[in-house]
């Protein structure tokens, strides 16, 4: 039986090294689960904090709403 998730936030990086860098920079505290070598599910209720962290780390996240 398939599982359908609602109200989730995903982060997908261009490569594994970038994801490791972000995790080391503080992103780890927001992680719900790692979905693959370049993708994470993060706490959707903390998106403003996550966005600020990414910007502090020199990343400009592209935010998609769906």
Question: Any overview of this molecule?
Answer:
With 66 residues, this protein is of the alpha+beta class. The protein has one domain (9-56). The protein has 2 helices and 3 strands. The chain has helices at residues 16-24, 47-56; strands at residues 9-12, 31-36, 39-42. The chain has a 3-stranded antiparallel beta sheet with strand order 1-3-2, with no helix packed on it. A hairpin with a 2-residue loop joins strand 2 (31-36) and strand 3 (39-42). The longest helix has 10 residues, at 47-56. The protein is globular. The two termini are 23 Å apart.
Residue-averaged pLDDT:
94
Report the principal-axis shape.
globular
- Roughly how much helix do the residues carry, as a percent range? 25-40%
Strand line-up across the major sheet: 1-3-2
* Tally of DSSP helical segments: 2
Query: What structural class should be given to the helix and strand makeup?
Result: alpha+beta
By DSSP, the count of extended strands is 3
Radius of gyration: 12 Å
Listing every helix as H and every strand as E from the N terminus to the C terminus, the arrangement reads EHEEH
Which stretches of 5+ consecutive residues score pLDDT under 50? none
> Proportion of β residues?
15-25%
Tally of domains: 1
User: What distance lies between the first and last C-alpha atoms, to the nearest angstrom?
Assistant: 23 Å
In short:
This protein is an alpha+beta fold and 66 residues long. The protein is 29% helix and 21% strand. It has one domain (9-56).
Jot down its keywords.
single chain; 66 residues; alpha+beta; three-stranded antiparallel sheet; globular
């Amino acid at each position: 039986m398939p599982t359908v998730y609602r109200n989730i936030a995903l982060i997908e990086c261009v490569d594994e090294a970038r994801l490791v860098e972000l995790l080391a920079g503080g992103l780890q505290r927001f992680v719900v689960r790692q979905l693959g070598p370049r993708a994470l599910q993060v706490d959707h209720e903390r998106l403003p904090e996550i966005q600020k962290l990414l910007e502090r780390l020199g990343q400009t996240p592209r935010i998609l709403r769906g």
